[in-house]
Specification:
By secondary structure, the chain is an alpha/beta fold. Helix content is about 25%, strand content about 15%. The protein contains 4 helices and 6 strands. It has a 6-stranded parallel sheet with strand order 3-2-1-4-5-6, sandwiched between helices.
């Protein structure tokens, strides 16, 4: 029987603050020096890590678009993995919407499910974009949408909606 439960976190706008452009759409930071890690996020991950596997699943299409280097992205991801004591980080560098591992497709979630024997029905996807919520819904997870009032709509209904990362304890036990 599968008993392992986990939380799949998005990166930009979820675990770390995302810069927002003039159109009110989030962007990614380019280097580790731009990252501010909120001490509350560290504390929350420490608490959640006692009951859940913690994964970060992130799309980073800036690499094929030549807007950033792979080494910069890997440095950011490794810093977050270590600082937040994440079980694993999965990064998709493709900008091809048909790529099975690019959110909103569930490939990263299914990969981790198989590797760690995860029960998706007991697991959560937490993110700030429609792609995160769709990926979670497509995989059969519960979803928590962090509403930062971006200028974009969500496609599928999240299980829960919050305004701040700190509110996740309302739904995670």
């Amino acid at each position: 029987m599968i008993n392992n439960k986990c939380i799949f976190f998005d990166r930009d706008g979820t675990l770390i603050k995302a810069p927002v452009d003039k159109k009110k759409l989030p962007k990614s930071y380019k280097t580790i020096n731009q990252i501010y890690l909120d001490p509350e996020i560290v504390k929350i991950c420490k608490i959640l890590g006692k009951k859940y596997y913690l994964f970060m699943i992130t799309n980073q299409p800036d690499i094929p678009r030549r807007n950033n280097s792979k080494i910069n992205e890997l440095n950011i991801n490794n810093f977050l993995k270590k600082s937040l004591n994440l079980t694993e980080v999965c990064t998709n560098f493709s900008d091809d919407e048909k790529n099975y591992f690019r959110k909103p497709n569930p490939g990263m979630i299914f990969y981790l499910k198989k590797k760690y024997n995860i029960c998706l029905e007991k697991s959560f996807v937490i993110g700030d974009r429609w792609r995160d919520i769709d990926a979670g819904n497509n995989a059969g997870c519960k979803t928590i949408f962090i509403d930062h009032n971006y200028n974009e709509k969500i496609n599928s209904k999240p299980t829960f909606i919050i305004k701040s990362f700190k509110e996740i304890f309302k739904f995670l036990k």
